[in-house]
Known about the structure:
Elements lengths: L2 H35 L9 H27 L7 H34 L7 H28 L23 H23 L1
Helix pairs in contact: 1-2, 2-3, 3-4, 3-5
Amino acid sequence: MNNDWTSSVSPLRFWICLTFSIPSALCSILILIHFYHERKNLSIHHHLTILLTIISFVQVTTQIPVSMAYYRRGEVIPAISAFCTWWAWRDSSLNGVSRFTMAWGSIERHLLVFNITLMNTKVKRFVFHILPTVIISIYPLLFYFIAIVLNPCEKRWDYREVSSIVLKTKENSFYSRSYVEHHVTLLIILFYFHTM
């Protein structure tokens, strides 16, 4: 990528991120406050919305400021492998939890609409709601921790590019397979259950 173009667009990206991240964080806080005040009236339908709101808030308050710092300075600071590893893990895992939550929310909504009795008992509620929610929350965190942090491959980072958060390894088949599993499959699930 042309560095002149990148350096001229980076201030614009910084201001766009700043302009939208503040209202986004405030909206997330207001939504969570609303859910807290209405906690006695909450039903099983609200759990995934609350989870997505929490994930969005964490992303806006941790992921966006790091990107903004890069856009402002033009390089990743601190320019150390541990920071880029943490950045890659955090971005990938939070995005993964968001995607899995949306996909499961689509499936669960379909189940709740067409199988009204599916959540009648505590056991069914545990099996069809709580257990999948816990799994979709933990699986991406563990998967990307193993794939990025514990990966024995040599990690090469370019600290002058925001793409330093992308792990560059000699063996890309694992990442190609995980891309199909974690991106394409979830998009198909979202499309299928939203059009049914």
